[in-house]
Amino acid sequence: MKHILRRAAPLFLPVLVWLAFFIAFEPNNYFGLKPATSSTQPVARVREYQADPGRNLILGDSRLAHIDMDQAARVSGRQWQNLAFGGASLKETLDLADYILDSGNPVDELVLSVSFYTLNQNYNTDRFQQLETTLENPVAYCLNLEYNVNALTVFLDTVRGTPDAVETGEWGPADYVGDDGETLPVHYKLYVYPQSLIPRCLDWSLSDQFDRIAQLAQRCRQQGVTLTVVLPPMADNVLTEVCEPYGIDTAMEQQVLPQLKDWAGEYGFRLLDYEWEDRPDFDDDTQFYDGFHLDEVHGLPQWVEMLFSQLKQG
């Protein structure tokens, strides 16, 4: 037996080298060996929660994923944990909320982000079951191709000294030139962004997950958890080029918002609507990185100040 093991040992060496490399550079701190991680992937966010559950939690998509948590704590007077992640659908966000409330960990407050885009039935990504499998099975995590590519990317960035990307831009003249060479009214990234939303919004309809917001609100009330539903701001050209042409503004203003207000009154949660009724007076060209995401230097901090000031007021 020992003879067989000695012969087989060289075969396992590449596997051990790969595993050491993966553990060293995987960006999600899955194994908890690093002080922290800057990753906003769902596995990183939930793994962090499992290791050290917070009591005041932020759920949503990428528009909330890059909030400066030190600023949020300073403005609101309490610590927050961010579980928002890029591309989160309404179902994934609500599944995560249920996961948290099912965990048995104490929860004081949930901030739940929704928008016309995530309330769209045509935006229905569902990765939560796969996420739970990954969280429960380290082998599945290690063998996942996406996470291996992420580890390789982190390694290359480390070797090159490439800093983490920040969604901000000091836009220059070249950023205001269109594909046809004409001068644009706003920077290029913002100008073209609405076109990326239209394919999913052509036949916008309300998600079949919508009623789960009421179910979550009822559960939060029963468990003594403060719930706030937030609609983040969007740029003006998303409103005029996507929402108005396809009747989304009418559906939101006549169907969705009245229902959310009714539920807020019935179940006692706060509704903060920066998307439709209380749109911040932001300069789209300088404060939006694209049509949904605020500039992390020139726009997001200003909105965080607004949002968490209101959360502080209760």
Describe this structure in words.
The chain is α/β, with parallel strands linked by helices. It is 52% helix and 7% strand. The chain has helices at 2-25, 42-51, 62-65, 69-76, 90-102, 128-136, 138-143, 145-160, 188-201, 212-223, 236-243, 248-267, 284-287, 300-313, and strands at 56-59, 81-82, 109-113, 226-231, 270-273. Strands 2-1-3-4-5 form a five-stranded parallel sheet, sandwiched between helices. α5 (90-102) runs parallel beside α10 and α9 runs parallel beside α11. The protein starts with a helix and ends with a helix. The mean pLDDT is 92.
Task: Quickly describe the structure.
The protein is α/β, with parallel strands linked by helices and 314 residues long.
Across the major sheet, the strand order is: 2-1-3-4-5
Q: Structural class of the helix and strand makeup?
A: alpha/beta
Low-confidence stretches: none
Distance between the termini: 68 Å
Oligomer: single chain
E-strand count: 5
Globally, the shape reads globular
* Number of helical regions: 14
What series of H and E elements makes up the topology? Answer: HHEHHEHEHHHHHEHHEHH
